[in-house]
Amino acid sequence: MVHYDNLGGDFMVTVQDIATPRLQNYLEFMRDPIAFFTRVQPIGDVISLKTGISPTFVVNSPEAIREILIRQDQSFIKGRTTTVLQRTVGKGLLTTEGERHATQRKYIQPAFYKDALERYAHAIIDETEKLGERLEHEQEVDMHTVMMRLTLSIITRTMFSTNVSEEEKELADAVTTTIEQSVKILFSPVMIPASVPTKANLKHKEAIQTLEAMIEEVLMAAKDHPEWFEDSLLGMMMAVTDENGNRLRDREVRDQMMTMLLAGHETTANLLGWLFAEIARHPEVERRLIDELETAELRGNPFNWMRELPYTQQIIDEGLRLYPPAWLIYRELDEPVEMFGRSFKEGSTFMICPYAVHRNEEVFPNPSAFDPDRFAAGNKYAPFSYIPFGGGSRSCIGSRFAMLEATLILTVLYKKFLFHNVRLQAPVPEPLISLRIKDGWPMKVEKRG
């Protein structure tokens, strides 16, 4: 797919038209976007979908992805995804562009530094152990629901210093509703304004109000007792000042909290759902995981456990390859650009599907197999052939937090339990804002001896 030019020493990226008719492509994409991107992945580096007025392209090759996410980054915006997500999260880190995005990233970044992650590690262990106590009384659970609630309790505790155990189900349901409604809008050919009182819009609005009520309560507490929140992202945001000494407006703090609620917990919950399902489908992987957990000392700050658990992290890396939560990266040109040996006009849309890119046979032989040994020490992959956290200025700010969280959750739960799939068939992906297992995933819980 990526052709090396021996004379110039550079990669050449080719752009070619898709052979199938436009209507067929559109219907296939709407019916099953994952299947569509997987089908077109081997066709070429960059594929024109021949969409006429608004040119749309699918980007497959690592070099083309690098060009868009790194070299030409300043010429792109997130476009339609921003418009849709702003209905829920407002103007937070996920939806701002340019200088404003860079400023927001700068004041949020310290919440993911090593000293902060060391504090969060204790909270992750504590919340997971509470779940473990509840699982001792369960025989079968829906793993998606269980992980959604666990990661919600972790994100609110670490980022907002808040315990939401009493409202956990209500808040998790509200997050699910906002995600499901957002993806319907994102893929709809007609975007109905949020102000129109359709059944879907009213349902979406009610879910947002549920989340905002919790955020409003936490914000008021943070103003009255700032000392309670000093070590959290919320505390950091409350202390931020601009060059004139002005603090962040409540609205901006609210938008960042909404962003963290949606982007910071649902993605990890979905990844974990896939991991539990795949570990149960692969007894050898499960055995090696248990062996590692049994032989590791796991003392001191749980953040430092990571270095003792390389195979656990290989499992997570392989889960991120096969089932990247951020399964679609969407970019729109904000100005005309020359790249790949041709001109692209303003408004041109480029879609990068990590789910499909990670199934490139030339990079990952037998790509549909779940094989954590792909990520054993010493194995290297070309830059941008593996992009579970995106790349460039908009790469996931919480990637280290996500890896820490997933590692510690697997560690705590597999030291106490084994999990068995109830369904015989393989789980089916449901591509929403994040990549979920369709129709949940029931699992039997077995206490280890």
Essential attributes:
six-stranded mixed β-sheet, 49% helix, alpha+beta, globular, three-stranded antiparallel β-sheet, Cytochrome p450, 449 residues
Describe, in short, the structure shown.
This protein has helices at residues 22-31, 33-40, 62-71, 80-89, 98-108, 114-135, 143-160, 168-187, 199-224, 233-239, 250-263, 266-281, 283-295, 310-322, 354-357, 399-416; strands at residues 3-5, 10-12, 15-17, 46-48, 56-59, 76-77, 140-142, 329-333, 337-339, 342-344, 349-352, 417-421, 429-431, 435-437, 442-447. The protein has 449 residues and is of the alpha+beta class.
Task: Characterise the protein shown here.
InterPro entries: Cyt_P450 (IPR001128), Cyt_P450_CS (IPR017972), Cyt_P450_E_grp-I (IPR002401), Cyt_P450_sf (IPR036396), Cytochrome_P450_Monoox (IPR050196). It comes from Sporosarcina ureae. It holds the Pfam family p450. The structure is a single chain. The protein is α+β, with helices and mostly antiparallel strands and 449 residues long. It has one domain (79-334, 374-447): Cytochrome p450. It contains 16 helices and 15 strands. A hairpin with a 4-residue loop joins strand 1 (3-5) and strand 2.
CATH domain class: Mainly Alpha
C-alpha-based Rg, rounded: 22 Å
Query: Reading side by side through the largest sheet, how are the strands ordered?
Result: 3-4-5-11-8-6
* Architecture per CATH nomenclature, i.e. the level-2 architecture: Orthogonal Bundle
Number of helical elements: 16
Percent helix range: 40-55%
How many individual β-strands?
A: 15
Task: Tell me the β content.
Answer: 5-15%
**Kindly, what is the distance between the CA atoms of the first and last residues, rounded to a whole number of angstroms?**
50 Å
Annotated CATH homologous superfamily: Cytochrome P450
Shape: globular
CATH topology: Cytochrome p450
- Return the average pLDDT rounded to an integer: 92
Main sheet record: 6 strands, mixed
Task: State the domain count.
Answer: 1
Low-confidence stretches: 1-10
Instruction: Assign the structural class, choosing from mainly alpha, mainly beta, alpha/beta, alpha+beta, or little secondary structure.
Output: alpha+beta
Family: Belongs to the cytochrome P450 family.
InterPro entries: Cyt_P450, Cyt_P450_CS, Cyt_P450_E_grp-I, Cyt_P450_sf, Cytochrome_P450_Monoox
Keywords: Heme, Iron, Metal-binding, Monooxygenase, Oxidoreductase
Organism: Sporosarcina ureae
